[in-house]
Amino acid sequence: MTDAMTWTQAVVLGAVQGLTEFLPVSSSGHLRIVSGVFFGDDAGASFTAVTQLGTEAAVLIFFLRDIIRIVGAWFVGLRDATRRGLDYRIGWYVILATIPIGVLGIVFKDQIRTGARNLWLIATMLIVFSVVIVAAERYGTRRRPLEELTLRDGLTMGVAQCLALIPGVSRSGATASAGLFLGLQREAAVRFSFLLAIPAVTASGLFSLPDAFAPSGSGLQASGPQLLVATVIAFVIGYASIAWLLKFVAKHSLNWFVAYRVIVGLVVLGLLAGGVVSAT
User: Fold this and answer.
1) 29, part of any domain
2) Does residue 10 contact residue 230 with C-beta atoms inside 8 Å?
C-alpha cells in the first residue's frame, strides 16, 4: 500500500538529499533513515534516484567549465592523436569507469529497490564502511595530483562506485577512499569522484522517473510537483555542499565524517533493536 507524501516530507527529504549527496555519509541511506524514523515509511529508491538529478545538476553547473573542456578535448583527441592530453584521458576514464555500475545497477535493480533498503543493512554499512574510510586516510600516501590519474585509477574507482548501490556505503566515500588507497591527493580523488558520478546518477534518475510517478508496493508516493520541489531544493543545497566539501577536503581528513557515520549507525541499530522503527 502506498501513502501520499506530504509537502513537509518532500521538502525535508529534498534538503536531506542536497546535504548528504556529496558528503561521505550516504545520501540514499539518509533518505531511507529519515523517511523511516521520522515519517514511518520508505520514500523509495525511485524518489531517491529522481532527487539525485537535482544534485547532479548542481555538479554539472559547478563543474561546467571542466566538463566542457573535457568533452571538447575528448572529441578533439578522437580526431588528432597528438592532442590527447589529461582532459582527453579523463573523458575516457569516466566513460569506462561507469560501465561496472551501469551493468550491476541493471542486473540487481530489484534487490536495490527492496532488500538493500533494509535499515539493519544500512545502519551496519554506515559503521562498517567507516573502517574503510579510516584505513584509506591512514594508508593513502596522498602524493599524486589529478594530473597523474591513470586508467587503472579510473577503473578502480569505477568498481568502488558499485558499492554505492548499497545504501549506507556512500558513493563519494567509496570512490574517494579508493582514490586515497591509490595514492591520489584527497582533493584530486574527490574531484574525480564528482565527475565519475555524473553519468551513473543521471542515468539512474532518468531511468527511475516512470517508477517515481507510478510506484508499486508500499511506501510514500510523491506527486509530480512534490518531486520537482524536492529536486530543486536538493539542487540548491547540493551546489553549496560541493563548494564547501572541496574547500574542506583540501585541509581536512575524511575521518571527520567517520564519527558521525558510526553514531548514526548505532542510533538506528538501537531503534531497530528496541522495536521503535521497522527495518522494512
Assistant:
1) yes
2) yes
Q: Name the domain count of the chain.
A: 1
Mean per-residue pLDDT, 62-76: 95
What does the alpha-carbon distance between residue 43 and residue 165 come to, in Å, rounded to a whole number? 16
Is 280 a member of any domain?
no
- Number of alpha carbons in the 13 Å side-chain half-sphere of residue 36: 26
Burial call 2-30: b when 16+ CB within 10 Å, e when fewer:
eeebeeebbebbbbbbbbbbbbbbbbbbb
Question: In whole angstroms, what is the distance from residue 37 CA to residue 10 CA?
Answer: 15
CA-nearest of 99, 98, 77, 96 to 86 is 77
DSSP-derived secondary structure for 257-270: HHHHHHHHHHHHHH
pLDDT value at residue 201: 85
pLDDT per residue over 90-148, tens digit each?
999 999 999 999 999 888 888 887 888 899 999 999 999 999 999 999 999 999 999 99
Can you give the residue range of the structural domain that contains 109?
2-273
pTM for this model (two decimals): 0.89
The mean of the pLDDT values for the chain is: 91
Q: Rounded mean pLDDT of 163-175?
A: 93
70 by Cβ neighbours in 10 Å (0-12 / 13-18 / 19+) ranks as buried
User: Is residue 278 situated within a structural domain?
Assistant: no
d(CA 54, CA 48): 10
Residue 161: inside a domain, yes or no?
yes
Beta carbons of 211 and 50 less than 8 angstroms apart = no
- The string of pLDDT tens digits covering residues 205-245 is 888 777 666 655 557 888 889 999 999 999 999 999 999 99
